Amino acid sequence: PLPIIFASAQDAEAAFYEALERTDIDAMMRVWAEDEDVVCVHPGGPRLVGYSLIRAAWQHIFTHGGRFFVRVSQQSTVSTPFALISSVVEHIGSRDNEQLRAPVAATNVFVRGPMGWRMVAHHASALPPDSVGDDAKTLH
């Protein structure tokens, strides 16, 4: 199959959250740059560097974490023609339990290359449950 080319960083970010909700490892990894310098930090987890380590971590989450729904709020971005940094608050819950978990502050970094926009960093940290408002919305 032909590789997916994301025309914008926003398209890549929407695909990231859609893959997370579908627990689709192939869709998730199509968002990431196939590079050994990509970085991912999940809440409370280690710093993962490299495509294969990041893939293994997402596979573990998808295999053992159940089905998710994700709402994003408080998005702010900084962009250039070749890079975009997106800071968001993620409200993640389980499809089995509709109650939202503690909010997560996430920073997503995308770069534009020959294959369109790709994620090169995702860093997420848990926030205190009462630290954000209820203005969550679906990003995609």
Can you put this structure into words, describing what you see?
- The longest helix is centred in the N-terminal third of the chain and has 14 residues.
- A hairpin with a 2-residue loop joins strand 6 and strand 7.
- Strands 1, 2, 3, 4, 5, 6 and 7 form a seven-stranded mixed β-sheet that branches.
- The two termini are 24 Å apart.
- Helix 1 packs antiparallel against helix 2.
- With 140 residues, the chain is of the alpha+beta class.
- It is globular and about 40 Å long.
- The C terminus is likely disordered.
- It contains three helices and seven strands.
Summarize the structure in short.
With 140 residues, the protein is of the alpha+beta class.
Q: What is the beta-strand fraction? A: 35-45%
In one word, what is the shape?
A: globular
Count, helices: 3
- Compute the CA-based radius of gyration: 14 Å
How many individual β-strands?
Answer: 7
Q: Mean of residue pLDDT?
A: 87
Q: Structural class per helix/strand content?
A: alpha+beta
Biggest pleated-sheet summary: 7 strands, mixed
Helix content: 25-40%
Element-by-element helix/strand order: HHEEHEEEEE
Ranges where pLDDT stays below 50 over 5 or more residues in a row are 134-140
First CA to last CA: what distance? 24 Å
Summarize this structure as a short list of keywords or feature phrases.
alpha+beta; seven-stranded mixed sheet; single chain; disordered C terminus; 140 residues; globular
